Amino acid sequence: MKVGTKSVLFGVHCFLIHPFFVAAAWWKLYGFPRDARLCAAFFFHDSGYLGRPNMDGREGEEHVLLGGHIMGKLFGAKWRDFTLCHSRHWAKRLGKPYSRLCVADKLAFVMTPAWLYLPMARASGELAEYMQVASARQSGGQFSNFQLSLLKCRNPEVWLEGLKSYTRRWIEKHRDGRTDHWTVIRPSEPEREVCNAR
């Protein structure tokens, strides 16, 4: 079973757990999610990890396409883009701003307690990949020295606190939708035409 499938079934993107943290994060950031389309986005946004061989590689980044496609078919282009742009990297590739779903998704990660997150990440096989790529993918030069020291630690609890600390700072800076200068697209994966996302 591929790591993306394991993530959706029992890992950190578990369809029985993660959408509820996203909903709670949305409520904390923007108020109670009264629109049923929001609830659909909370449920479908990470469904594209099914069948993916990695989480942060090219295939993993493309996980947004399935949820975006579903939301577009159900509710139109606005909701497709809302779902596609829950990924900061994908939004940059499309030349669009990240969506509020992105901010809620980041806060959902912060809100997920370590006692739950780490066992799920270990069970699915995600943890090793996340620990290996976190610094290169997240920073854009925006980590504090203290956060970098935490992220370099091989202790998963310490590493997780470093990543959550960085993510909290990103949320505080961007919850109002201001331009994201922190996120960078890896040079090894240049911007490309995304036909299926239009």
Q: What Rg is obtained from the alpha carbons, in whole angstroms? A: 16 Å
Average residue pLDDT: 89
Largest sheet: none
Number of domains: 1
Spell out the helices and strands N to C: HHHHHHHHHHHH
Low-confidence stretches: 188-198
Give a description of the structure:
- The protein has twelve helices and no strands.
- The protein is an all-alpha fold and 198 residues long.
- The chain has one domain.
- Helix 1 runs antiparallel to helix 9, helix 3 runs antiparallel to helix 5 and helix 10 crosses helix 12.
- The longest helix has 19 residues.
- The C terminus is likely disordered.
Give the topology.
Blueprint: H1 3-10, H2 18-30, H3 36-44, H4 58-61, H5 64-75, H6 77-84, H7 88-94, H8 100-111, H9 114-124, H10 126-138, H11 145-151, H12 156-174
Q: Would you summarize the structure shown here?
A:
The protein has about 200 residues and is an all-alpha fold. The chain contains twelve helices and no strands. The protein has helices at about 5-10, 20-30, 35-45, 60, 65-75, 75-85, 90-95, 100-110, 115-125, 125-140, 145-150, 155-175.
